[in-house]
Amino acid sequence: MSNNRRRSRIALSACRAMIPPFLLITSLIGPLSATPTIAAPREELVPVLSHVGEASLRGTVGYVHIAFDRRSDASGLTIRFSTAPGRFSRSAQASIEEAIRRTAHSLKLSTDSWTVVLTIPYSDITISGEHLSGMIGLSVAAMATGRTVDPGLLVTGRITQEGQIGPVGSAPLQIPAPGRARLRRVVVSKDQPLVERDQSARDLIQVTPVSSVTQAFQELIGEPPKPLR
Predict the structure, then answer these.
(1) What sign results for the dihedral spanned by CA atoms 52, 58, 63, 64?
(2) Domain residue limits at 80
(3) What is the pLDDT of residues 70-95, one digit of tens each?
């Protein structure tokens, strides 16, 4: 037998020996690549604007703890409102759920696998009204897309069915004292009437009027608006 023929047989045997491992690796890569990636649960403490008492125009800033999880199933949006330490009123719960659904719809996000747990970390406090709904809806959307919420920014307003940031209430809104709230900027509806503030407050905090959910979302996560084509 010639040397060339012997070398060909040795090479063929080596190739046959490598086929099973190759097939094994290929069979493993297929299922792994097809396995859906489930995002890790996230938690955020976000600032929200509310009123001190129903008749008061004096704005105050508190925080709401949001826990977000993306489940492996697609059985629908699940929202849980903790009853301790603080509570959400029924009107606040309704406006928050509405804001989460409308924000997701405006940003073309599916909520079918979302679980959201909301907690007020203050004892014996009940939060009511729509002021916080837009901020929570936008924050949940940011968490669902892996974005980080700008810690120095607050959004006040409701989410309309048309995907706009709507004003809250008919009375002018007083922006909270920035020294107490420690915020740099407040995003409001372009149609929201505001109470005039003193010069020191104007120098410390910026008010940004927006119209759409998309604009508010870009402001919240610190991304510049996309240029129009």
Answers:
(1) positive
(2) 42-221
(3) 999 999 999 999 999 999 999 999 99
Phi, psi of 213 (to 5 degrees): -60, -40
Token pair listed for 80: 């849980």
Residue 141 CA to residue 110 CA, distance in Å, equals 10
3 state DSSP class of 225: coil
Cα separation, 54 vs 167, whole angstroms = 17
- 0.85 cut: is pTM over it? no
Is residue 96 a part of any domain in this protein?
yes
CA atoms in the 13 A half-sphere facing the CB of 141: 29
> Count of residues for the chain?
229
Helix, strand counts (H, E) of the chain = 6, 11
CATH number at residue 122: 3.30.230.10
Q: Which ranges of the chain does DSSP label H, i.e. alpha helix?
A: 3-34, 90-106, 133-144, 178-181, 199-204, 213-221
The alpha helices in 41-89, defined as continuous H runs, are none
d(CA 229, CA 222): 21
